[in-house]
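If you are new to this repository, start here. Below is one unmodified record pulled from the training split, so you can see the exact layout before writing a loader.
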Amino acid sequence: MRISKSIFLFFVFVTCLIFYVIRYLVKSEVNRLVRENTLQDVVVTGKLSTNIVRKKNNLLRSKKPFVNGKRVLVSGGAGFVGSHLVDKLLQDGYDVIVVDNFFTGRKRNLQKWLGHSNLEIITHDVINPIYLEVDEIYHLASPASPPHYMYNPIKTIKCNTIGTMNLLGLAKRVGARFLFASTSEVYGNPSVHPQPETYFGNVNPVGPRACYDEGKRAGEALCYAYSQTGQTDVRIARIFNTFGPRMHIDDGRAISNLITQAILGKPMTLYGDGSVTRSFQYITDLVDGLYKLMKSNISTPVNIGNPEEYSIKNMSQIIKKLTRSNSSIVYMSPVPDDPQRRKPNISKAMHYLNWKPLVSVVDGLKLTIDHFKKELRAQEAWKPFKDFS
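And here is the target side for that same chain:
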């Protein structure tokens, strides 16, 4: 009996020893990978990935304190708006964690920052919880163009409800300030013009755009609930139509459609009679507005947009002139539930944020057209060779 007990104790001792040796070796390997900066892109698949992210973040913080001393999470940070916001945050010295499922986001939007010690990229869908230590959260994750958010309407609703709840929960746990990227679509087809933040909107809850419009309205309601219960410091940006480099050339938005068609010499399509209006702002103005809103003490919704209003017909003529295109203009059937007018009242942003758009629409269009030409040339260059046999 004594012999068997001794053997048992020896077996337990050896097992524990092996366990701690393996644990030490794993930790050493993680530290080595972190120091060599080979974990730039982390795919979160479980606890081990989260621990690796935290380990790397802690090491970076201890090795080289970042200028602002703040760690910022940007959901949807590889997308059109998110990547431009990441540019500003990194230029200002923040430590930035990008969380993106790359449904519409693209890693090449962040290409110039890959390898930078203050940038982390985590492939993750925000409808699943994530556990990080951050000081600020910009929640930009969501498909934003009609073809993208209509492609999977349930996923769009989940992103703006469950995803928003998950990130609000994270903000509550770690005491982070939270900014929700809402949209002018919460106003629906407005009966008030221009639209102030006090307007409740006119939205069809069972139409083709409802997954996005009502998803954002629900996201705002969640932010309000967390704010009113004193659990989270929130900011809500109602973003109006925005354009600029890194837009998808085929995302279905009016600007991208018209520019692409004009450059390629294809007919420029207008839906309805072209009298529908929109107010377009350049991307750098939006980023500046989001940044100022995050730094403010305004917890109620704020319109971020350019109050210059253009009919889509007028915009098509401007783009045609800037691209020197010979494209014809054709009229298609109206889009269901398409808002007829859109123009922000930005008095609140001007007063409380000292913000207004600085880039003219024409100047912004010139920069965007140059970008689209490069994109289209790159696509042409990568076309497979034709088989003439």
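Two things worth knowing about this chain: The chain has eleven helices and 14 strands. The first strand starts at residue 41 and ends at 43.
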